[in-house]
Amino acid sequence: RLIGIQTLLNFYVTPVEGGTYAHWGASARLAAHGLGRGKHCARVLAALAREFIHTREVLDVNPYGEWNDSMLADEDLANDIRLHLQSLGKEITVDKLVQYLNSPEIRVEHGIDKPVSLTTARRYLDELGYRFTSPKKGQYVDGHERADVVYYRDNVYLPRLFELHKRVRVFDNDGNPIEGPFAVSGHRVIVWYHDESIFYAHDRRRETWYHKDAPATPYQKGEGHSFMVADYFSSDFGWLRDPD
């Protein structure tokens, strides 16, 4: 603070050709620039200098903002971070922001004295409106919640499955069958479940840091050529296999 105030006053009272003599605002901006700060710092230095002239006291004010405020109070730094994040597109990560803020040129330009941690960078992303999530999708919805699908699931499929389970052998936590009569009379039921996994040629990570106001964008349905692995299994016999 003292260096900033002294620099501002020196610029203001020193008649140097091409300088800012007798120009208060220009002197404040030049002093802030010399400290590696921006316009916000210049305004704070100007206020501190005026207070010092009147009271001969230096207020306990941080040119970045309040002492517990983040460096994003510096508008120039915040704007530089926004531009950097925009250049990263969908490849925004906390690590990349840390590397950017800890680079020598950025630390010198904005007067960053201490290394920026992962926790701090994550907080900056949140303050700038970014959220770690999947992208918003446009022009495609699945049919899992269609009225007819929900009706069939709740009124046909699940009731029938629960009814069959009354005649299914039950196992304990160790996989041993629990002997005893079925809940209802009838033949024993063995339920075979179908399991499948689909692997796509263009499988990739979708979650990253997106701005909370980013619009949904149309995307191509499908992930390229796919390979499906499917099988059947039951609690009684395990995976379905050919005896041979």
Word description of this protein:
The chain is α+β, with helices and mostly antiparallel strands and 244 residues long. The protein contains eight helices and nine strands. It has helices at residues 2-13, 24-34, 39-55, 75-88, 94-101, 104-110, 118-127, 147-165, and strands spanning 130-133, 137-138, 170-171, 177-178, 193-200, 208-211, 217-218, 226-234, 238-239. The strands form four sheets. It has a three-stranded antiparallel beta sheet with strand order 5-8-9, with no helix packed on it. A hairpin with a 5-residue loop joins strand 3 (170-171) and strand 4. Helix 1 crosses helix 2 and helix 5 (94-101) packs across helix 7. The chain is rod-shaped, with a radius of gyration of 33 Å. The chain starts with a helix and ends in a 5-residue tail after the last strand. Mean pLDDT is 80; it is low at 63-68.
